[in-house]
Amino acid sequence: MKKLTLIFLFPVLLSSPFGSHGLIREEGGPGDSLSNTLLWRISGKNLHRSSYLFGTMHVLCAQDAQLSDSMKSIISRCDEIYFEINLDDIMGMVQSLKYMRMMDNRRLSDLLDSVDYHKVRNYFDQQGSILPFSMLERFKPLLISSLIEEDGLDCKVTNGMELVIQKEAHQRSKKIRGFETAEYQAGLFDSIPYEQQAKDLVNYIDSMDYYKKSTLQLVEVYRQQDLNKIDSLTRSGESGMANYVDLLLYGRNRKWVDSLQTILPSRSLVVAVGAGHLPGEQGLINLLRKKGYEVSPVRN
């Protein structure tokens, strides 16, 4: 079930306990530069209770997918958890598999020559997949690429920060919600030419050593909780996907902030989304500040 859930997490790769008794100490104020933390407090404006913003990484080695005491304490006190999608809606995600297929009944073999097609097919035949390739080859190629992420990690057992937070939330009987549906996320990829996606899929497989090094670099930056470096790595992609950063990141950020302005006054939230969504001029931290909220770093 874990691997099936990870299919639906948006394919952009993108903690140690603090103090005693899970106490939270905050550093700096809303005007400060980004501190080395993935955890941020949202307060001020018309809020009676604080909410929190946390940057996740969708796939990590299991030993790295841990929650700090401060994060556990915050989850215990919040009303709801917001992910990019509602991970508790398993039936809805399974039903949305049909939207992950390419339009017009296209297959990967329609986008690639025979050499590249068999290269991709052989990769999944050798590595194995949760879904049969006959089904997988109908998927939008960027979604297929997301299934290769785990191969870039130096570990046999993987996990995701969302899944760890979900487990903690269940233990605390917290409601889980999502900003988007899996159907909506899959539909985003229809705006990116399938040919470009297929080209990047082949390039990914051809350059596994390079991408493995890049993945490990991103994991290390995530461990350091350095949002400035995460922002730099997110925007410096060499593939054609770098041309769609507004579609994949910034446009979604703007919609989420619009939703949060309606939700935040009535309840305390933990908003846990990919870390690449937090930093930058069009990141969630800055966009929330522009709406009048105080967004302050919390030691994690």
Characterization of the model:
This protein has 300 residues and is of the alpha/beta class. The protein has one domain. It is 43% helix and 13% strand. It has 13 helices and 8 strands. The strands form 2 sheets. It has a 6-stranded mixed sheet with strand order 6-4-7-2-1-8, sandwiched between helices. The chain is globular and about 60 Å long. The two termini are 29 Å apart.
Question: Could you give a short description of this structure?
Answer:
With 300 residues, this protein is of the alpha/beta class. 43% of the residues lie in helices and 13% in strands. It has one domain (12-101, 152-196, 207-298).
Question: What percent of residues adopt helix (DSSP H or I)?
Answer: 40-55%
Structural class: alpha/beta
Q: How many helices does DSSP assign?
A: 13
* Rg for CA atoms: 19 Å
Shape: globular
Number of domains: 1
Number of E-type strands: 8
Mean pLDDT: 85
Distance between the termini: 29 Å
Give the low-pLDDT segments.
10-32
β-strand percent reads 5-15%
> What is the string of helix and strand elements?
HEEEHEHHHHEHEHHHHHEHE
Strand order of the largest sheet: 6-4-7-2-1-8
Provide the descriptors you would attach to this structure in a database record.
six-stranded mixed sheet, globular, alpha/beta, single chain, 8 strands, 300 residues, two-stranded antiparallel sheet
Fold blueprint:
Layout lengths: L1 H7 L30 E5 L7 E6 L3 E2 L7 H9 L2 E6 L4 H6 L18 H14 L5 H4 L4 H6 L11 E2 L1 H11 L3 E6 L1 H7 L5 H13 L1 H17 L2 H9 L9 H19 L5 E6 L9 H7 L3 E5 L2
Parallel strand pairs: 2-7, 4-6, 4-7
Antiparallel strand pairs: 1-2, 1-8, 3-5
